[in-house]
Design goal:
756 residues, two-stranded antiparallel sheet, single chain, Tetratricopeptide repeat protein, disordered N terminus, P-loop_NTPase, mainly alpha, 33 helices
């Protein structure tokens, strides 16, 4: 082959080659030109160094950024604005774009590079593949910014400090952007024995241009005080839909694109994979709707599980299923081997914040089959959060009664959770049983703890709600009857906390499970239906609750008989809802029958009998027979105190109801005294935000208002209203009642002030 080339070159040689005097003349001219270019180069180096500006006229430096179409960078306007502001005025800072893998850090950095190029900046791009690539990239950037190679050689000599020399030059040079892409491993970008945040390696904040680093490491401790951390979050549905339409314009409607974006969690890498697939000539799913439907059965295939080089880190970064393994491998190298099993374990929980309360050493000990200490677990949690694989929400989901609780839970991106769980179930089936056992053990243990924790456990109880139904999916590990009992226990705790909407969801889950597996006429189904109806009336949905209770009463009488304890419970609950709906006569009739039957069948001291006596006394009070109500309430208080104790909730209820009856009899001063003691006792026993405590506060305010103490009543009603809105919500009947009473109090206070 070489011979052939030589023959062809000789065949076309020009005629002047055969004249020696011509050849020597040409060579002489070339020598003069070469010397002139060398001189000019040295002059330009010196001029550039003296001037403080880039020596090259090229607008892209020695290493080129990926191509990006600015019009197709979706949903990152705020981040781009922050970066462009830093580019114009670094002020001793550098930027770090950080997020979990697949969030589009490189794309956003490339967009800034394009903006910088258009604005006349010299752009340099270092694709980090080790310490050598970082050093080489900085040298090329420094040369591109006019630093003489002789200065670089001098700094590289024995005793010299090349990073110091380069950054002295950058501190004198304007209008440059240097991107260090994929700086995920701190040891690759920091000097031996020092951290990045010491700013004595290549990463420093001292240039007159902007240094931009992209990394999975989201820890401010890694980057130091001068780093402007810009954390990327998933794209909103609308922006993600536009990403899909950009790559697959014929893939479907904007609504379908947004739906698929939501399904993929707004992860840019997954959106790009979906767009490529939909437009592929051999793809089986050629539109967004078909692709989304197929994800249910083909998730791992559609997001790139079968890449021919899955262990290549550069390939893994661009493959949705494998991209997070890059971070887990790095944590392994950093000596955090529990990060991978912890992520696997957390992926089995529901798609919701996971309470830290049950991420315990015991959880991981069961999963990995060896003892795990708290320090190692904390290190794994920190590592996963550092690389963006776990989130720590500043505020938990907004539910009645749930305020900001930073750090009480962790979150996983939906796609991280789903794909990690799939990897566990497909790649590690032999370990799956241990992970599932660990999860169910943790859930059940937490329910046991919450049952005795009281108000201190309400925060965790709310967070536990979406996860606990997972017990029903593992009958081999948790018998269904025990799983339903755990769900009912948590629902009871939520009732104490006033979280009735969450309670209703659990009751509905138990009812649906009973109906499916036991049938509509099973006693356990009747019990589940009774609990469900009670949650409805707690939410103020009285009519719906009454209908379900009446149907349940008929079913229980038919299946169990009219005197069965469960039938009596249903009759009592129908009467209770009738009281709430103002149908006092029918309610009193039902309560009278239930009290007689329970006294005869269960005894006068039975807990259910005490409840029936209190219900009947309240019905008498509502019918205007205050004397009979007072007699029954007084008797019930004595029996409750003797049988249950002075601090039992039913004892407090009977005392509060007696105080209300005294108020209705026209003795508001004595009623206020009674309400005040119950209010204090409930506050002590249950806390100020317990629904029963709020009821006592409302009742005390009512008595104060009737005494003419309108200002004092209004102040107490304001506190009660704030608590009820926080716990029950603005539209709950109790909140509406308190708001109405407060308006009356304020109006009366205003009239009295005018009369003065």
């Amino acid at each position: 082959m070489l011979g052939t080339v030589a023959e062809r070159a000789g065949a076309v040689a020009p005629e002047w080659v055969g004249h020696p005097w011509v050849v020597w003349t040409v060579f002489g001219a070339l020598g003069v030109l070469s010397a002139g270019l060398a001189t000019a180069s040295r002059w330009l180096d010196g001029a550039a160094e003296n001037d403080g500006g880039p020596a090259t006229s090229a607008r892209t430096g020695s290493l080129h950024p990926p191509h990006v179409v600015l019009q197709r960078v979706r949903g990152r306007d705020r981040e781009i604005a922050r970066l462009r502001a830093l580019l114009r005025k670094p002020d001793g800072r550098f930027a770090v774009l950080c997020a979990v893998g697949g969030m589009g850090k490189t794309t956003l950095a490339a967009a800034l590079a394009e903006y910088a190029r258009r604005d006349g900046y010299t752009v340099f791009w270092i694709r980090l593949r080790g310490p050598e690539s970082l050093t080489d990239g900085f040298i090329q950037a420094a040369v591109g910014c006019g630093m003489p190679r002789t200065a670089i050689s001098g700094a590289q000599s024995v005793g010299g400090n090349l990073p110091d020399a380069v950054w002295r030059h950058f501190s004198r040079t304007r209008k440059w952007l240097l991107v260090v892409d994929n700086a995920d491993e701190a040891e690759q970008i920091s000097p031996d024995g020092e951290g990045v945040a010491d700013y004595r390696g290549w990463i420093r904040p001292y240039g007159r241009g902007l240094l931009l680093v992209t990394s999975r490491d989201t820890s401010s401790a890694t980057w130091g005080h001068a780093a402007e951390l810009i954390r990327l979050e998933p794209l909103p549905a609308a922006a993600g839909g536009k990403v899909l339409l950009d790559s697959a314009p014929d893939g479907g409607t904007p609504v379908e694109a947004q739906a698929l974006s939501s399904r993929l969690g707004g992860l840019p890498l997954a959106l790009q994979a979906a767009g490529r697939y939909v437009t592929g000539s051999t793809s089986r799913h050629r539109d967004f709707a078909a692709y989304q439907n197929a994800l249910q059965e083909e998730l791992t295939a559609l997001v790139g599980a079968d890449n021919p080089r899955p262990t290549d880190p550069n390939v893994a970064r661009s493959t949705v299923r494998r991209t997070w393994e890059v971070s887990l491998d790095q944590l392994d190298r950093e000596g955090v081997p529990l990060a991978r099993p912890l992520l696997r374990q957390l992926s089995l929980f529901a798609e919701a914040p996971v309470p830290l309360a049950f991420i315990t050493p015991r959880l991981l000990t069961t999963a990995v089959g060896r003892p795990v200490g708290q320090a190692a677990l904390d290190q794994a949690l920190t590592g996963l959060e550092r690389y963006g694989l776990l989130g720590v929400p500043a505020e938990e989901p907004s539910v009645p009664g749930a305020g900001p609780r930073a750090g009480s839970s962790v979150t996983l991106h939906p796609l991280v959770r789903e794909i990690t769980a799939l990897a566990l179930t497909t790649d590690e089936t032999d370990r799956l049983h241990r992970y599932e056992q660990a999860m169910t053990d943790a859930l059940r243990s937490e329910v046991t703890d919450l049952r005795i924790a009281g108000a201190a456990g309400w925060t965790t109880a709310r967070l536990l709600v979406p996860h606990l139904p997972l017990l029903l999916d593992h009958p081999a590990l948790v018998p269904s009857e025990e799983a339903r009992a755990d769900l009912n226990t948590l629902a009871d705790v939520l009732g104490d906390a006033g979280s009735y909407a969450l309670q209703l969801g659990l009751r509905q889950t138990v009812l649906a499970h009973c109906a499916e597996f036991l049938g509509d006429q099973h006693p356990d189904t009747f019990t589940a239906r009774n609990h469900f109806a009670n949650s409805l009336h707690s939410l103020g949905r009285y009519e719906q609750s009454e209908g379900i209770h009446r149907q349940n009463l008929a079913d229980r009488i038919r299946a169990l008989g009219p005197e069965h304890p469960d039938s009596l419970t249903s009759r009592s609950n129908v009467g209770y809802v009738l009281q709430l709906r103002g149908q006092f006569a029918e309610a009193a009739s039902l309560h009278s029958m239930v009290l007689a039957d329970r006294t005869r069948l269960l005894g006068a001291d039975h807990f259910l009998t005490l409840i029936s006596r209190d219900n009947l006394a309240k019905s008498f009070d509502q019918l205007g027979d205050h004397t009979a109500a007072t007699t029954l309430h007084t008797q019930n208080i004595a029996e409750c105190t003797r049988v249950l104790g002075p601090d039992h909730p039913l004892t407090f209820t009977s005392r509060d109801n007696l105080a209300a009856t005294v108020n209705h009899q026209g003795d508001p001063a004595r009623a206020a005294e009674l309400h005040r003691t119950v209010f204090a006792d409930r506050s002590r026993a249950f806390g100020p935000d317990h629904p029963h405590t709020l009821t006592s506060g409302n009742n005390l305010a009512t008595a104060l208002h009737r005494m003419g103490e309108h200002a004092q009543a209004a102040e107490l009603l304001e506190q009660t209203l704030a608590g009820r809105v926080r716990i029950l919500g603005t539209d709950h009947p109790d909140s509406l009642d308190t708001r109405s009473q407060l308006a009356v109090c304020r109006s009366e206070t205003g009239r009295r002030q005018q009369r003065r």
